[in-house]
Design goal:
Helix content is 27%, strand content 23%. It is of the alpha/beta class. A hairpin with a 2-residue loop joins strand 1 (42-48) and strand 2 (51-58). The chain is globular. The model is unreliable at 1-30 (pLDDT under 50).
Length: 295
């Protein structure tokens, strides 16, 4: 008789053994790798379009009973790393508020955001598909509510965030772009998430109203005002209303398909994350727009 069909050498009935096996298989759908606790940070590897890719996973530390965690993906800048952007952005306290954080790694420390950037753009690495895979894989790794997904992008990571918003309308609940620009097309009729963009009026990389040629990138990124014009037109937003809050110029578009678009333009601030007080502002926006509405 084949070994697979021999009677198990166990005092337990065969039926009971099969029940235990089936229960174990069901629990393994979101199994934690050996040697890790359920909330331990870890690097996860996956394959997308035949290429090995990875992301840093930081599971939520505290989720109210009966709920799943929100999911926040944070995209590094040109030349950055998941570990580096995790440290610089300092968003980890969201984990105690019910959010799982993921930090995808760009190929050659860069992203394909359309016209930018580097080798991924030249070789047409599909980073939109990669982000799809990260969101879906994170939901298998740890319990998350896929109705409450957010994307935060810094610099070239912000370029990819805009690209993803346009390429996957309706997928995200919230998006935050820090010092980014739209370097891809954005079709009319899109639906936007609740979106916040932070931009320094003294940014020497991505201009506010006029393009600046960046030799390292080999292009002049689209100015912030032009990016916002294209995005809000594509989403059918009403005319913006401008106010001033705590020294920042705030432009807000309502009536958009989907959410609202809000731009904080910071006087005398440059391109850097710290110049824009981006951690505090991003945390406040995510708590209000993502976590407050989580069920």
């Amino acid at each position: 008789m084949p070994a697979a069909f021999r009677r198990p050498r166990s005092a337990l009935p065969v039926f009971v053994l099969w029940v235990l096996v089936l229960l174990g298989a069901g629990c393994g759908a979101q199994a934690t790798p050996a040697g890790y606790s359920a909330t331990a940070s870890r690097t996860v590897t996956l394959h997308v379009d035949g290429r090995e890719r990875s992301y840093l996973l930081e599971p939520a530390l505290s989720v109210p009973t009966g709920r799943k965690a929100a999911l926040v993906a944070v995209l590094h800048q040109e030349g950055g790393t998941p570990e580096g952007v995790a440290k610089e952005t300092a968003l980890q306290e969201l984990r105690r508020s019910g959010a799982t954080l993921v930090y995808p790694a760009g190929v050659d420390h860069s992203w394909d955001a359309g016209k930018c950037c580097g080798m991924p753009s030249r070789q047409r690495v599909d980073d939109v598909r990669f982000l799809d895979a990260v969101f879906n894989d994170a939901a298998r790794q740890t319990p998350v509510d896929q109705r409450h997904e957010a994307l935060v992008g810094y610099s070239s990571g912000g370029m990819l965030t805009y690209h993803y918003v346009c390429a996957r309308p309706g997928r995200l609940a919230v998006a935050v772009v820090v010092s980014g620009s739209l370097e891809s097309s954005c079709d009319p009729g899109i639906s936007v998430p609740e979106l916040l963009t932070l931009h320094g009026k003294a940014d020497g990389t991505i201009g506010l109203n006029h393009p600046i040629f960046i030799t390292k990138l080999g292009l002049a990124p689209r100015p912030a005002a032009s990016t916002l014009g294209i995005l809000t037109t594509s989403a059918g937003c009403d005319k913006s209303v401008t106010t001033h809050v705590y020294g920042a110029e705030v432009r807000r578009w309502e009536g958009c398909r989907g959410g609202t678009v809000e731009a904080l333009l910071i006087p005398d601030a440059g391109h850097g994350w710290g110049n824009l007080d981006a951690s505090r502002r991003t945390l406040a926006f995510l708590r209000l727009r993502l976590l407050a509405g989580a069920e």
